Amino acid sequence: MRTEVSGVTDQVTRYGLPGAAMARLREQARRLRGDHEFVVTFYDVLFTLRPELRPMFPEDLGAQRARFGDEFGTLVQALGDPEGFEQRGRALGRRHLEYGVGAEHYAKVRDVLVIAIAAHLGEECTAEDREAWSTAYDLIAVVMQKGAVD
Ligand code: HEM
Predict the structure, then answer these.
(1) At residue 26, does pLDDT exceed 60?
(2) What is the whole-number distance in angstroms between the Cα of residue 68 and the centre of ligand 1?
(3) pLDDT digits over 94-150, tens only?
(4) How confident is residue 27, by pLDDT bands cut at 50, 70 and 90?
(5) Gap from CA of 100 to ligand 1 centroid (Å)
(6) Atom 27 (ligand 1): residue with closest C-alpha?
(7) Which residue has the higher pLDDT, 96 or 78?
(8) Whose CA is nearest to atom 20 of ligand 1?
(9) Going by CA atoms, what residue is nearest to atom 3 of ligand 1?
(10) What is the pTM of this model?
(11) Span 55-78, mean pLDDT?
């Protein structure tokens, strides 16, 4: 399904995620956004499961954690606004090219992010929610990678 970049993006902009799944994601994203504990968990899990990624990031993660949490939340909310979503995602992807982020990194971060979200939300995060988070992340990652090749 996710082999062809523009095809996937068209699916988002035309159809989005199923309405009920999207509504749950938005609600969960609202709560995760600005939740310091969540971003701390995310980076802890990331560097525990993927220690090879640690040197890519600044030593002091203070600002990075907050910016990631904000941007991720903003992009999830922006899924309902295809134009804004594309613009924002592409710009973020271009910057990530400068940070040395390549195609091989995106899936690694997705898996960790879904684990961190599920751990943080507990029982409230159902199997369907995890699947929806994974899809939402892929939609973001595809647009970011489009920005990186612009
Ligand atoms: C949903 C996907 C992602 C989002 C929303 C996101 C968000 C952000 C944000 C907001 C920043 C702060 C700087 C800026 O705005 O340009 C940042 C920096 C960074 N991100 Fe991401 N990111 C994502 C995926 C990734 C992936 C897959 C990697 C790969 C390891 C990564 C590695 C980095 C690095 C190395 C920095 C730069 C740190 C620095 O030198 O200051 N990010 N990210």
Answers:
(1) yes
(2) 6
(3) 999 999 999 999 999 999 999 999 999 999 999 999 999 999 999 999 999 999 887
(4) very high
(5) 10
(6) 106
(7) 96
(8) 96
(9) 72
(10) 0.89
(11) 92
104 Ramachandran zone, left/alpha/beta (phi>0; psi -120 to 50): alpha
Residue 124 CA to ligand 1 centre (angstroms): 27
- Ligand 1 centroid to Cα of residue 146, in Å, is 15
Domain residue spans in the chain?
5-149
Dist. CA 99–CA 132, nearest whole Å: 27
Expressed in angstroms and rounded, the spacing between residue 79 Cα and the centre of ligand 1 is 19
119: left (phi over 0), alpha (psi -120 to 50) or beta: alpha
Q: What is the pLDDT of residue 104?
A: 92
113 closest CA partner among 135, 92, 144:
135
- How is domain 5-149 classified at the architecture level of CATH? Orthogonal Bundle (1.10)
Sign of the CA dihedral 7, 20, 45, 42?
Answer: positive
Ligand 1 residue neighbourhood (C-beta within 6 Å): 53, 56-58, 64, 67-68, 71-72, 75, 92, 95-96, 99, 101, 105-106, 109, 137, 140
Tell me the percentage of the chain whose pLDDT exceeds 90.
73
- Which among 144, 5, 126, 124 has a CA at the least distance from the CA of 78? 144
